[in-house]
């Protein structure tokens, strides 16, 4: 049924759950997998007259190392299960756009991701990457929750 599954990870427990579901699906269908991790771009914070700034080069290096560590750990799990796996690190202020774009670019036919399922004021204020991904994707999105 599915031949190329994209799994979005962020290092949270819910993304680990989504990764396990994605691995099981890939194994059941003999599918390839693409694991994507999206990080926000560098920015500064202005509070009144004060500016809080993490040096851009240091930020990029830290985020790249963190992404490689997270993606490397996921890739090892898929390799151990004998499932072909590609990893992608993207930087985008809107993670859902990067996830949908990666799925399209890689020819994926399913997106698997975790969601906290926030609703009410928390959902309104924080938004939901999973909800936005499901809204904008042109392929099925499996959302894993506890």
Strand order of the largest sheet: 5-2-1-6-7
Shape: globular
SSE class: alpha/beta
Largest sheet: 5 strands, parallel
**Poorly predicted runs of 5 or more residues:** none
End-to-end separation in angstroms reads 25 Å
Report the sheet-strand fraction. Answer: 15-25%
Q: Number of helical segments?
A: 5
Characterize this entry briefly.
The chain has 146 residues and is of the alpha/beta class.
Structural overview:
The protein is of the alpha/beta class. It has five helices and seven strands, in the order βαβββαβαβααβ. It has helices at residues 13-29, 56-80, 95-105, 120-126, 129-136, and strands spanning 4-8, 32-39, 45-47, 50-52, 85-91, 110-114, 141-144. The strands form two sheets. A five-stranded parallel β-sheet has the order 5-2-1-6-7, with helices on both faces. Strands 3-4 form a two-stranded antiparallel sheet. The longest helix is centred in the middle third of the chain and has 25 residues, at 56-80. It starts with a strand and ends with a strand. The model has no long low-confidence stretch (mean pLDDT 89).
Task: Give the SSE map.
Elements: E1 4-8, H1 13-29, E2 32-39, E3 45-47, E4 50-52, H2 56-80, E5 85-91, H3 95-105, E6 110-114, H4 120-126, H5 129-136, E7 141-144
Parallel strand pairs: 1-2, 1-6, 2-5, 6-7
Antiparallel strand pairs: 3-4
Tags for this model:
single chain, 146 residues, alpha/beta, five-stranded parallel beta sheet, two-stranded antiparallel ribbon, 5 helices, 7 strands, 24% strand, globular
């Amino acid at each position: 049924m599915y031949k190329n599954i994209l799994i979005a990870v962020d290092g949270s427990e819910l993304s680990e759950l989504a990764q396990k579901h994605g691995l099981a699906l890939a194994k059941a269908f003999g599918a390839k997998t693409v694991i994507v991790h999206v990080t926000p771009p560098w920015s500064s914070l202005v509070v009144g007259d004060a500016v809080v700034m993490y040096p851009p080069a240091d930020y990029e290096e830290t985020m790249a190392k963190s992404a490689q560590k997270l993606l490397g750990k996921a890739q090892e799990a898929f390799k151990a299960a004998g499932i072909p796996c590609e990893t992608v690190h993207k930087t985008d202020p809107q993670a859902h756009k990067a996830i949908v774009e990666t799925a399209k670019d890689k020819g994926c036919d399913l997106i698997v991701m975790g969601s906290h399922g926030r609703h009410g004021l928390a959902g309104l204020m924080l938004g939901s990457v999973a909800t936005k991904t499901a809204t904008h994707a042109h392929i099925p999105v499996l959302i894993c929750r506890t």
